[in-house]
Amino acid sequence: MNTSSKTHFIWILIVLLSSVQLLHAQSSTTSTSRTTNSSNFVYKDDNQKLKIESNGKIEISSDEKSISFISPGGSLKIEKTIFGNSRSITIKNDGAGLEHDYKEGGRKKPFEPDGKAWLAEMLPEMMNTTTLGAGKRVDRLFANGGAKAVLAKVDQMKSDYVKSTYLGLLMKKNLSPAETSACIDMTLAQIDSDHYQLEVYKSVNPSYFKDFNQLNKVVAALDSDHFKTELLKPIFKTNVTEGKGQESINLIKMLDSDHFKTEIAKSISFSSLSDQELKFMVNELVPTIDSDHFKNDLLKTAADKGNMNEARALIILEGVKSIDSDHFKADLLTHICRKQGTEKVKAKIRETAKSTIDSSHFLGEVAKCAS
Predict the structure, then answer these.
(1) At what angle do helices 360-370 and 343-356 cross, to 10 degrees?
(2) 278 vs 284: CA distance, rounded Å
(3) Spatial separation of the C-alpha atoms in residues 5 and 162, rounded to whole Å
(4) Are residue 57 and residue 149 in the same domain, yes or no?
(5) What pLDDT is recorded for position 167?
(6) Both 40 and 114 in a single domain?
(7) Is 201 helix (H, G, I), strand (E, B) or coil?
(8) Cβ(153)–Cβ(123) under 8 Å?
(9) Looking at CB atoms within 10 Å, which of 24, 88, 311, 323 has the fewest?
């Protein structure tokens, strides 16, 4: 390797090492563990480490500059290290009031004035990175500035967990539709985790989702079919979706999983579906389900719960066309035959069986019922 090549190689190596160091410097880890009465929080990167340990009930003053209450036997410890320089404060209640233990570089220092000033500086940061004092903080912010004040504070927070806690608490207030919409917009914009998005939505009054535009927006933002199902199931169990059968079915079509599609669809109030909406489900939703088992399960549920009459039985029979398995075709046909066995329905069952079922065994089973 000549001198020019060596120089070029060294410069490449320097650039690569610098890039690795930069990426490493920007990395961070956050961990939170909780038990019934205590929590531990750790945040660290290459420049700093913040550690917060709490035990018992802790209340923060309304100006967020001091601790106003710790339950007997409880404690709070805040420790921060920046470029190797550490400070910590431990506040305990041993039954005789609050005791403050302040240290710089591991050496004990008087709490007044430096420790008190540092605590006042740290508490807002602590409250923005943990859920300590969240309930009363939301109450205070909402009382003074409404939903806007809470949302402005949420905008300063780092983790999905803390943001979802604050937004969930806010959602439990008596919010206007516009304020609820603003909370949902912030949830969509700032919380990545499906789990924590759902934690916020659990606090929303289901009646809000009568606005299907909002419901569609929320469902579309969730990646996991599991979480979409967890959101939709309690909503579908209310009367929110009644009279909106086609819109409800379109929501279900947004899921990929046959299992979850069927699970939600079976919770539809089939008795409230119009004939047109039932036809839409049979023609538009059922064919999007790949599994014959789940198709059959859904169609039989519709037959059992859907104010069955001759006209509705004939609509459900159309679903047989999207089933491949002779076994499930025969199972659905015989089920409807027993449920609504008018001559017109039986004639349609015989016609459907002859044109779609190849197996003589299953044809015989259907013929026995529909004769």
Answers:
(1) 170
(2) 10
(3) 53
(4) no
(5) 97
(6) yes
(7) helix
(8) no
(9) 24
Phi, psi (deg, nearest 5) at residue 176 = -75, 160
Residue 315, in any domain of the structure: no
Residue 181 lies in a domain: yes
Q: Which of 219, 195, 55, 238 shows the shortest CA–CA distance to 132?
A: 55
Nearest to 170 by CA among 188, 190, 153, 191: 153
- How far apart, in whole angstroms, are the C-alpha atoms of residue 371 and residue 357? 16
| Rg (the chain; Cα; Å) | 31
Q: What is the pLDDT of residues 164-180, one digit of tens each?
A: 999 999 999 999 999 99
Handedness of CA 246, 252, 253, 259 (dihedral sign): negative
Last residue of a domain, one of 95, 130, 165: 130
Number of structural domains the chain divides into: 2
pLDDT at 327: 97
User: How high is the mean pLDDT of the chain?
Assistant: 88
Residue 370 lies in a domain: no
DSSP bridge pairs for 109: 102
DSSP state, residue 23: H
Residue type, 89: I
pTM of the complete model: 0.79
| Shared-domain flag, residues 34 and 121 | yes
The structure tokens listed for 168 are 């969930």
Q: Alpha helix locations (H) across the chain?
A: 3-26, 116-129, 134-154, 160-171, 177-190, 194-201, 212-221, 225-236, 245-252, 258-265, 275-280, 292-305, 310-317, 326-339, 343-356, 360-370
pLDDT band of residue 36 (cuts 50, 70, 90) is low
Q: Examine the pLDDT at 330 and tell me if it is beyond 60.
A: yes
Q: How many CA atoms lie within 13 A of 370 on its CB side?
A: 27
Range of the domain at 86: 29-130
